[in-house]
Amino acid sequence: MPRHVKRGDQVMVIAGADKGKTGRVLRVIPDKKRVVIEGINRVWKHVRPSQRYPQGGRIQKDAPIHLSNVLPLDPASGKGTRVRFKTDSNVKRRIAVRGGTDLGIVKAGAMPSLIPSAPLVPASGT
């Protein structure tokens, strides 16, 4: 399933405690359909003393939120927008529904439907 956001995108949170805030996508977790956004959904993590944290204590970190709760920002208007996918000459692009701005390439190269498939030959067991 294509994702409407990628790492490095500027996004707006549309639901939850941080609704209306914007930030940059630090990480996408496709298996869980979640994203980590800089400065959004901050949680306290309790750490015991170690070489990395000699004092121990509490640190704040960004927790993931569900992919459906974010919208990419339209570069032209600075508002959240839905995404449409468009394929031209074997290049799949993300297009902002609000304003039609190009949000970048999703996939470049030959599309699987355009590659002639070889006939399936069963492997011989001998």
Structural overview:
The chain is mainly beta and 126 residues long. It has a domain at 10-78: SH3 type barrels (Roll). Helix content is 0%, strand content 41%. It has strands at residues 10-13, 22-29, 34-37, 42-47, 57-62, 65-66, 70-72, 83-88, 91-96, 102-108. The strands form 3 sheets. Strands 6-3-2-1-7 form a 5-stranded antiparallel β-sheet, with no helix packed on it. It is extended, with a radius of gyration of 21 Å. The model has no long low-confidence stretch (mean pLDDT 83).
Question: What does this entry show, briefly?
Answer:
The chain has a domain at about 10-80: SH3 type barrels.
What's the SSE pattern? Answer: EEEEEEEEEE
The residue ranges in which pLDDT falls below 50 over 5 or more consecutive positions are none
Shape: extended
Number of strands: 10
Structural class: mainly beta
CATH class term of one domain: Mainly Beta
Helical residue percent band: under 10%
The CATH topology label of one domain is SH3 type barrels
Q: Which percent band covers the strand fraction?
A: 35-45%
Number of helical runs?
0
